[in-house]
Amino acid sequence: MLVGLLSACDGIMDGIYDDAPADTDFSEGITVTDANGRMTLFLNACSYTQWHYINLNDLTVTSLDIPTALTGDWDGQSGWTYNLVEGTRYTQLSTVQTDAQPEPESWDLAIHHFDVRTHNGAALMTDATSIDQLAPNQGQYANESWTYDSWTTNQVITDLTAMMAFRIGYQNINVNKALSTWATMDFSTPPPTYDSTGKVYIVKLADGTLAALHLKSYISPAGTKGYLTIDIKYPY
């Protein structure tokens, strides 16, 4: 049994996780902005207990909880790993076995707070700071070094209740580490500080098509961290 499970924006320890409560005026969903594949995703990702799966073809978002227990046979890797975090040094303390992360049948990207996964895809960061700055010829990225998802036990934060003691729980799961740099949290001196690259990222989907993503904001109008506004061009 996992203890101390919590999500951001629930009023627990306000001021440590976010600077403001949940923003009830934030309107979620995908809005198509023109006929050339441009759209904007508005996503409340302040919770640390869910993955949000985005399907770029049918413009849907499916939110699924992170498993907190093992209800059947263990797959040998899924679970929560608790780490002692000292700057960039992670010392594993314990691991709790859980079921594997559930997924919808069809999806392209998944977002957990600031973490991002692809569905058998890859990603790279460009020098552009808006999608309008991207060259119309996608061939310029053909020879770039693409980053594929990789397994991690110290990226996807699930339990921050012992953050002040530098003990943090993480979900064991595949993550795209290049794409997940678009916004970061620094725990070196709690409470955390936040930053973002401001760059446009290109994602190569499993079918070979490309999508351009630009995280325009990770803060709601009310000032709460984890409310994402993402500019998208698909296909790029």
Shape: globular
Which band does the percent of strand residues land in? 35-45%
Sheet/helix structural class: mainly beta
Major β-sheet strand ordering: 1-2-17-16-15-9-10
The string of secondary-structure elements, in order, is EEEEEEEEEEEEEEEEE
Helix content: under 10%
Mean pLDDT: 89
Distance between the termini: 44 Å
> What radius of gyration results from the CA coordinates?
18 Å
- Unreliable stretches (pLDDT < 50, length at least 5) are 3-8, 10-19
Could you explain the architecture of this structure?
With 236 residues, the protein is mostly beta strands. It is built from no helices and 17 strands. The chain has strands at 29-32, 38-44, 50-55, 60-65, 79-86, 89-97, 109-112, 115-118, 122-125, 147-148, 150-159, 167-175, 183-186, 193-196, 200-204, 210-219, 225-233. The strands form four sheets. Strands 1-2-17-16-15-9-10 form a seven-stranded antiparallel sheet, with no helix packed on it. Strands 4-3-7-8 form a four-stranded antiparallel sheet, with no helix packed on it. The termini are far apart. Mean pLDDT is 89; it is low at 3-8 and 10-19.
Summarize the structure.
The protein has 236 residues and is an all-beta fold.
Present the secondary structure layout.
Blueprint: E1 29-32, E2 38-44, E3 50-55, E4 60-65, E5 79-86, E6 89-97, E7 109-112, E8 115-118, E9 122-125, E10 147-148, E11 150-159, E12 167-175, E13 183-186, E14 193-196, E15 200-204, E16 210-219, E17 225-233
Antiparallel strand pairs: 1-2, 2-17, 3-4, 3-7, 5-6, 5-12, 7-8, 9-10, 9-15, 11-12, 13-14, 15-16, 16-17
